[in-house]
Amino acid sequence: MSSRLFVLWGILLASGVQASAVDDWALLDKVAQAGRSQTLAGSYLHQIGSASETFRIQRVVSKGQIRERRHSLDGLPREIIRHGEVLISAAPDARSLMAAKISSAKLFPAIFPENAAGLADSYALSRLGPDRVASRECLWLQLKPLESEQRYVQRVCIDKASKLPLKLLTLDSRQEMVEAFSFIDLDYRAPNEKVSVRPTYKLSSKSAAVPAEMVAQNESLDIKGIPKGFHLLREVIRKMPGADGAEPARHLVYSDGLVMFSLFVEHARGARPAPALTHGPISVVTDDEGEYRLTLVGDLPEAGLLAIARHIRIGKKS
C-alpha cells in the first residue's frame, strides 16, 4: 500500500473516531434524561466496599412534575421524596435522618447532569460492550478522567431500549470497585399506587434539588487553582463541627457535573485539622494555604483532593 493510501486511511479512521465520540456524547445526554424522568418502579442495590443496602424506588410524571419516592428496605429506615425540584429526606430518628440526607446526595439512576456533554472537559467517553442487568440488555459506557488519579473512573450500563442507567460502577486507579449501584428488578409501567410526596416518618428535612444561589459574604476571597471542569455551585458561611469559639468557615461546593467536593476555608490560627480519611468514594484532606486552613471533602480519590488543595491559592479581593 502506498504512503498516500496510508495517509488517506488514517484520515478516514480519525474521522470515524471523531464522529463516534460525538455520537457517544449525544447518547449520554439521552442517558441523563432517562435517568431523571423515566417512569419506573423497581429496587436497586447500593454497595460501598463490603457494605450494601437495598432501596425501593417509584417515579411518575404528574402535571409536568416528577413525583418520586424511594425508601430503604434494609439498614437504617429512611425515605427520600422528590417533588419537582424539592427533595425531602425523612426518617424516624436523628441518626437515620442524617443517613437519608447523605443518601440524597446521589440519587441513582439520576447520576448525570442535564448537559452531559459538558463532562467532556474532564472525561474521555468510550463504549465497552454489551451486558445484562435486571433481565435487560444493556451497553457499558466508560467515563475515564483526562487527568489520571484526579477523579474516579465511572462505568455505566445503559438499557439499550430506554437508555436508563441500569448499573453504575465507580473504580479507582487500580480498577477496583469503590462504589456501585445496580437495579435488581425494574418495571417501566407506572406504579399501581399513587406516588405520595408526604413523608411517612416524623422527622424530615427539605432541600432544593437544584443548586442554591451563592450567599453574599462580608469578606470576599479570590480563590484560584480550582481544576478545569469544576464550577462553583454555592457558597455559605458555617461553623465547623467541634470548633466552638472559632471563627466560622467559608464553605464552597464545586462540581464537574458528575462528582463534587466541598472546600472549607478558615483561618489557620485556632483551626482544628481534620484527619485524612477515605470511606468508599468519599475522601477528606487538610492543607494550609498562607493564613488559611483548607479542608476538602468529596467523592474523589484522596490523591485528587490533595492535588486540588495544593494548587489552591487564596487572596482577598480589593
| Major sheet attributes | 11 strands, antiparallel
Beta-strand proportion = 35-45%
Mean pLDDT: 83
Number of helices: 3
Adjacency order of strands in the biggest sheet: 6-7-8-9-10-1-2-3-4-5-11
- Structural class by sheet pairing and helices: alpha+beta
The secondary-structure element order is HEEEEEHEEEEEEEEEEEEEHE
Q: Judging from the principal axes of the Cα atoms, what is the shape?
A: globular
Termini separation:
65 Å
Q: Helicity range of the residues?
A: 10-25%
Low-confidence stretches: 1-19, 211-216
Assembly state: single chain
Radius of gyration: 22 Å
Supply database-style keywords.
19 strands, globular, 6-stranded antiparallel sheet, 11-stranded antiparallel sheet, 318 residues, alpha+beta, disordered N terminus
